[in-house]
Amino acid sequence: MTNGKTNLRFLAVLLTLCMVLTLLAFTPVDPSILPEDLLMEGSQVGGEETAADVPADDEEVRAIIILEDPSLVDRGYSTLNLADNQAALTYSDKLMAGQEVALQRIQTQVLKGQPLDVAYRFTIGVNGIAITAPYGKLAEMERVPGVKSGVSGAAI
Length: 156
Known about the structure:
35% of the residues lie in helices and 19% in strands. It has helices at 2-25, 86-110, 138-142; strands at 60-67, 117-122, 128-134, 147-155. The protein has 3 helices and 4 strands. A hairpin with a 5-residue loop joins strand 2 and strand 3 (128-134). By secondary structure, it is of the alpha+beta class.
């Protein structure tokens, strides 16, 4: 039995040594020293945002509008057996009604009566609405009463 323990200890030491050597072999590379032909077209060095990265005001983007009322989880409801929790379902219905009010305000105040393309509604982890809208309208949407923030995603 001692021979088996010795073999396990040896393997543990060997594995630890391999892991340490792997960490020592890593050398970070400064991308600014790389030749231009190695960089992908459109890639940036330094992480500055260029005008090409920002969508045009009329370009359709996916975004999530986060509303001020707390989500089910933020309100303290458990996600376990959520469908069986009548109080959570009632609160979820309240959130959905609040989302409808926010959508109507956005369509009236920001989009001047144009419909908003809604992809999905969230109530459990976040109280929000996934939308597709012109990039230039997102900042205006954030100023609508009941809206906490807008998180822009990818341009379509």
